[in-house]
Design a protein that fits this description.
By secondary structure, the chain is α/β, with parallel strands linked by helices. It has six helices and eleven strands. The strands form two sheets. A six-stranded mixed sheet has the order 7-8-9-3-10-11, sandwiched between helices. It has a five-stranded antiparallel sheet with strand order 2-1-4-5-6, covered by helices on one side.
Length: 215
């Protein structure tokens, strides 16, 4: 099985983040822990958005090796859905989803886009302006946009925060199915253990910058 190898460290405000672990690149992996424990920082380091020391490998591909090798974020082919959902409010849903295709280098399977739109139940929303979307609808659009870019890995920073239990119950199976259809492994951040039990195939607990337990 292909692994994401991490052996990194980085100073944070109140602790030093130190992670040495191999994450299977299949299914959904959760990073669990209290607020300010280092979960989101680790996600951003994997993406190449925040600096760190050490080694990061995606299978046999070296993304970082000390300070000698550093693959920039845009070359890692990672999808990132941020906690503060970043849509283009002057565009409608169709244009928000398609905008990622302008920069991608990998061709999209022509069947993937309509299937992802169908799985995420976005068909009725395609002409709607982003400013008229609910929180759950914005989450689905952001996820579709990330998956359409054919990422090799999807990173989700608290993708279900701000949603009520009913919205989560409806959205979780849709996300799981969309990831399966796109054949894209995912790592997501959460502090909600019930959400993790429902959503993830495995979990990694982080406290004060170090891994304490894995399941």
């Amino acid at each position: 099985m292909t692994m994401l190898h991490l052996n990194i460290n980085a100073p944070r405000e109140s602790f030093e983040l130190r992670v040495q672990h191999d994450i299977p690149l299949s299914g959904i992996t959760a990073l669990v822990g209290r607020s300010a424990s280092g979960k989101s920082s680790l996600l951003r380091m994997i993406a190449g958005l925040d600096p760190c020391e050490g080694d990061i490998r995606f299978g046999s591909e070296v993304w970082q090796q000390g300070r000698k090798v550093m693959t920039p974020a845009h070359r890692r082919r990672i999808g990132f859905v941020f906690q503060d959902i970043r849509l283009f409010d002057h565009l409608n849903v169709t244009d928000n989803i398609q905008v990622s295709g302008r920069w991608q280098t990998q061709p999209v399977d022509p069947q993937v886009l309509p299937e992802i739109i169908d799985i995420l139940d976005l068909g009725p929303l395609m002409d709607r302006p982003a400013t008229r979307l609910s929180g759950g609808e914005r989450q689905r659009v952001a996820l579709a946009r990330a998956l359409v870019a054919a990422p090799r890995l999807l990173l989700l920073d608290e993708p279900l925060s701000g949603l009520d239990p009913q919205q989560k119950e409806r959205l979780i199976p849709r996300i799981q199915l969309a990831l399966k259809r796109a054949q894209c492994p995912a790592i997501f951040v959460s502090h909600d253990r019930a959400e993790v039990a429902r959503f993830a195939d495995r979990s990694i607990e982080i406290s004060h910058g170090i891994i304490t337990t894995t399941q």
